[in-house]
Amino acid sequence: MSEQPILFSLNIATLCIIFFSTHQLILRAQRRQVYWPLALCLAAIGVVIAMPSVQQLLPQFQVFNLVVSLPALPLIAPCLWLYTKGLTSHTLWQLTRRDTKHFLPAAFGGLIALITLCLPSPYLHAILLTEEFSIVEQAPSHVRNLIYGLLIFTFLSVLGWVLQSAWYAYKIIVRLKVYRAQLQDVFASTEQKELRWLNWLLFIVGGVWMFTALNVVLDNLFSPIHYDARLYAVMVFIVIYSLALWGLRQKPGFAELYDSTPSVEPNPLELTSVIDIPNVGEQKYQRSALSTTQAAKIAAKIEQAMKEEHLYLDAALSLPKLAAHIHTSPNYISQTLNETLGVRFFDYVNKHRVTKAKEYLQTTDKTILDVAMTVGFNSKSAFYTAFKKHTDLTPSQYKAASD
């Protein structure tokens, strides 16, 4: 079988996934705006990679597809960043006026595309399809200068996209690192909320992006890299499939806080900017009215809920749940744990779980997995990690030492 039908089939399959997923995300975005950026991200990718299908099915639109790819390229990274920001937000995320700055490169690309589409058809085909620049040389001087100016700005735009993508990838990685630390202030079990899939996706996308960026730059300066287009199409298919699958499955990590925290009142835990990260811990409770006496009372209530009522056995225990149980503000509980007890919610609850697990390991014949589930852990790996952290031993080592 020749290469062209395979490329066409892979491209059609990828575009079908994009179309279906984008439609589903738009429907979900009616309730939560966080899905809008991912829908736009997938749509932009669809525009960029559609060329093989357009070439086969709608050859008259090849030039148009190439031109509109210019504003679509710089949409991808900012949209993935805004989606990540929405998933990791402590409050119900909504697009704000400040977020519109992320679309300026795409707007610049759109302006170049609009001017390019106004060029006479022979010149468009010459610079985009046939590369017969002799036709451009024969154009009137003002048209020729305009074309060369557009080519220069297009190259700068593509180079800007390379740098832009690297910057947003860095922002996403930093955001996820802080987010995972913040999860431990709110949840006792975080495995299902850590967005590890985004790290793997970034790793894969990073490889595809580096290759694409290098190829685009070399194509504009020297000559493109020769590679097996089928392998590249397969990689793109896998990336899109993963992004669509996990994007449709994923819910915002702090969704439980949306109902417990009034949307009109800013949450002191909210991460407003990557630049503000170093100061979050210092300013977290600056305006709190919680006194030392109140903090001591709250600490006693928390201890009672854990030691006497065994609230830690709830595998889905969270800060809002604990707050509702002891009738106290979640922010006050967080402040009490961090400042009075000197521990994060995650570590505090898991310490009680490990203490109970030690009893089971010493006095029963339960398997390690059964013990983990009984004391409130959601997985064996999470149990091992917590047990090792609090005892410097694995559960197996502890059980062997107790026998």
Automatic annotation (TrEMBL):
Q: Which residues form a coiled coil?
A: none
Q: InterPro entries this protein is in?
A: Homeodomain-like_sf, HTH_AraC, HTH_AraC-typ_CS, Tscrpt_reg_AraC-type_HTH
- Kindly provide the name given to this protein in its UniProt entry: HTH araC/xylS-type domain-containing protein
The answer to whether UniProt assigns keyword Disulfide bond to this entry is no
* Protein keywords: DNA-binding, Membrane, Transcription, Transcription regulation, Transmembrane, Transmembrane helix
* Ranges annotated as spanning the membrane: 6-27, 34-51, 63-83, 103-126, 146-170, 197-217, 229-248
Under SUPFAM superfamilies, the record lists:
Homeodomain-like (SSF46689)
